[in-house]
């Protein structure tokens, strides 16, 4: 069974940093592209970042470019999101999502981890 | 950036009725469109990809159609568990990562 479990969310002050993790199991993690998608409270979905299966190709949404860094450790079956210079508008539930076989759609999602940026 | 506009914002129907949800793109996305279902407190679930392909395990009452700029998600006969929020998503610029979602349609019980 495919499982994605996020962790690392919490309350952080504006300008602070946080590192999210996503532990994957039930599939060959190293063969799949991965993404982070977020959802502000009561709002819709926003794609945040993409990483290829090897980690060699990375993309970001303009809203987080220069502040967030996506990475992965295929030996540990884990995906990460380092978030720096956090702003109030980054407050959201962050989901890790598996790419549907290099198609740019998301077939499995974690349960999400809440990041709250507030003083 | 490609903008996806979903309509209606809210759809009120009864179990057993047919639901038709619309998603319109600001420019052509070919057939590179997906639909997701999200229930309160849960992660989204992929229903349809490439406009008309059902994802694994999705019941046949869900179907997708369209290409270019106009797309439709149809639920042929609503079950109680189908009442949720539905999002469309495009990936026309894959793999450059410029993925966008629509704002969602809430399907509520009438």
Please give the structural blueprint:
The complex is a heterodimer of chains A (119) and B (110).
Chain A: E1 3-7, E2 10-12, E3 18-25, E4 34-39, E5 45-51, E6 58-60, E7 68-73, E8 78-83, E9 92-99, E10 106-109, E11 113-117
Parallel strand pairs in A: 2-11
Antiparallel strand pairs in A: 1-3, 3-8, 4-5, 4-9, 5-6, 7-8, 9-10, 9-11
Chain B: E1 4-7, E2 10-13, E3 19-25, E4 33-38, E5 45-49, E6 53-54, E7 62-67, E8 70-75, E9 85-90, E10 100-101, E11 105-109
Parallel strand pairs in B: 2-11
Antiparallel strand pairs in B: 1-3, 3-8, 4-5, 4-9, 5-6, 7-8, 9-10, 9-11
> How much of the residues of chain B is beta strand, in percent?
over 45%
- Percent range of helical residues of chain A: under 10%
Distance from first to last alpha carbon of chain A = 40 Å
Alpha-beta content class of chain B: mainly beta
Contiguous uncertain segments of 5+ residues of chain A:
none
Q: How many H/I helices of chain B? A: 0
DSSP strand count of chain A? 11
Give average pLDDT of chain A, whole number.
96
Order of helices and strands of chain B: EEEEEEEEEEE
What overall form of chain B do the CA principal axes indicate?
Answer: globular
Helix content of chain B: under 10%
Major interchain interface with per-chain residue totals: A-B, 25 and 27 residues
Low-confidence stretches of chain B: none
Oligomer designation: heterodimer
| Shape verdict of chain A | globular
Beta percentage of chain A is over 45%
* Main sheet attributes: strand count, strand direction, barrel closure of chain B: 7 strands, mixed
Number of helices of chain A: 0
Largest beta-sheet characterization of chain A = 7 strands, mixed
């Amino acid at each position: 069974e495919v499982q994605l479990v996020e962790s690392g969310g919490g309350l952080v002050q504006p300008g602070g940093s946080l590192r999210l993790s996503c532990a994957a199991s039930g599939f060959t993690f190293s063969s799949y592209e991965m993404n982070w998608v977020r959802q502000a409270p009561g709002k819709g979905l926003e794609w945040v970042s993409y990483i290829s299966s090897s980690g060699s190709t990375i993309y970001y949404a303009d809203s987080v470019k220069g502040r967030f860094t996506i990475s992965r450790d295929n030996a540990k079956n884990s995906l990460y999101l380092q978030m720096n210079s956090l702003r109030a508008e980054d407050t959201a539930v962050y989901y890790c999502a598996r790419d549907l076989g290099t198609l740019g759609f998301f077939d499995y999602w974690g349960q999400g981890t809440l990041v709250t940026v507030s003083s | 950036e490609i903008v996806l506009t979903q309509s209606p914002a809210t759809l009120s129907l009864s179990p057993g009725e047919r639901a038709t949800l619309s998603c319109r793109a600001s420019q052509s996305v070919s057939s590179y469109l997906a639909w997701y279902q999200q229930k309160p407190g849960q992660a989204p679930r992929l229903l349809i990809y490439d406009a008309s392909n059902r994802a694994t395990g999705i019941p046949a009452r869900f179907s997708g159609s369209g290409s270019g700029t106009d797309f439709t998600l149809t639920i042929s006969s609503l079950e109680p568990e189908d009442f949720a929020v539905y999002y469309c998503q495009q990936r026309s610029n894959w793999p450059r990562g410029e993925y966008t979602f629509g704002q969602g349609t809430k399907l509520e019980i009438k």
